[in-house]
Structure formats: structure tokens, C-alpha cells
Amino acid sequence: MARPALSEDKKRVVQVNIRLTQNEYDQVNTFAQSAGLSPANWIRYKIFTGKFPQAKASPLDAAIFRELQRIGINVNQVAHKFNSNEFPSELRPVVQELSDLLKYTIKILVHDRGSGEG
Description:
The chain is mainly alpha-helical. The protein has 4 helices and no strands. It starts with about 20 loop residues before the first helix and ends with a helix. It comes from Ohtaekwangia koreensis.
């Protein structure tokens, strides 16, 4: 499938060159990677909106989120069995402890995420 043709007013035909120090380039490149953009698109977004592009979740954050989601699903399945009396009563304290640990882990992750912004 061919790429759709752009109208003349949407074509980028003017090139602007700037010189950066290696440190400046590394910083722009790091910001661009975290936002999932090329350095040129990152700079274009910053210039025309005046804002930094939203950073995407890192692969590590996504992996942690998926694992927490799996744990949460398991806790919900256990809670369902627990509430329908299909669960051995001697395991109730263990389930409660795991549930408390999961809530604490989520609280720490959310607090950590919020403290880095600003």
C-alpha cells in the first residue's frame, strides 16, 4: 500500500540546521526516546506547543504494570473462591497478608511515580 500523498501546504520543504554540543544532543535524544519520537519531531513539538511531549512508559514500567495486573487477577480469583466458601479457612490470613502487600506495593509505585514529576 502506497503512502498517501501530502498536500503542498503540509509538505516539509524548509530545513533549519542548528548546532548542539554533544551534551545538548544527548539530552534532546534522551527526551525524544522517552517520548517515542525522533529528535526532530521532539524539537518540533516543543517549539510549536511550548510544552514537552508526554513521556511514554518505559518498557520496565510496562512490564511491572503487566505483572501487577496478573497478580491482581489472581487475587480477585482467590477472593471469589474465598467469598464463596470454596477456600480453606486456614489460608485466610495468608490471603489477607498478600492482599495488604499488593495494596502497599501499588501505593509505593504510585507515590514514586508522582514524586518524579514537577
